[in-house]
Amino acid sequence: MDSFYLEEIRDHYENPNNYGELENPDISHEEDNPFCGDHIRIDLKINDGIIEDVSFSGYGCTISQASASMLTEEIKGKPLDYVRQLSRDDIVDMLGIPLGPVRIKCATLSLKAVKAGIYRFKGWEFDDEDDEE
Ligand code: FES
User: Fold this and answer.
1) For residue 107, with 0-12 CB atoms within 10 Å meaning exposed, 13-18 middle and 19 or more buried, which class applies?
2) Residues 110-127 pLDDT 10s
3) CA–CA dist 53, 14 (Å, integer)
4) Residue 40 maps to a domain
5) Mapped to the 3 state alphabet, what secondary structure does 36-101 carry?
6) Among 32, 66, 68, 91, fewest CB within 10 Å belongs to which?
C-alpha cells in the first residue's frame, strides 16, 4: 500500500475537516454501518442549489472518518447535482487504497448519508446501488 495515502488517511482521521454539527441545517441525515454499529451524521446548508456548508459528526473507524472528512471537503461549494454522480469508486479514489467488501461499507457510510439526505430533500428517488455488493 502507498504510504502517502495511508498518511493522508491518518491525517484526515486525526484532524478531520468539517467535523461538528451545523446550526439550523437545511438537511440533516444519519446513517449507521450495520456491520459494526458505527454512526455518522451529515448536516448541510443549501443556498440556491449549492452546498454552502457541510459538516459531519458521529463515530467510526479510521476509514469511515477519513472518507467523511475527504467527502465533505469535496462537496462543499458544489451543486446538489454533483452529488448524484458520486459513486463508491470516487470514494475509493479519494482514499487511494484498495478496500475489501467490509471496508467499502466503512468508506461509503458518509456518501450514503449525504446522498440519502439530499435525495430526500430534493424528492429524488434514492438508488442505493453503492450499498450493493
Ligand atoms: Fe465501523 Fe468502519 S468499522 S465504520
Assistant:
1) buried
2) 999 999 999 999 999 887
3) 21
4) yes
5) CCCEEEEEEEEECCEEEEEEEEEECCHHHHHHHHHHHHHHCCCEHHHHHCCCHHHHHHHHCCCCCH
6) 32
Any domain includes 133:
no
Residue 36 belongs to a domain with what CATH number? 3.90.1010.10
Q: What is the pLDDT of residues 8-37, one digit of tens each?
A: 999 999 999 999 999 999 999 999 999 999
Q: Report how many domains make up the chain.
A: 1
Q: Is residue 34 part of a domain?
A: yes
For 104, the domain range is 3-127
Which residues form ligand 1's pocket by a CB distance below 6 Å?
33, 36, 38, 60-61, 63-64, 106, 109
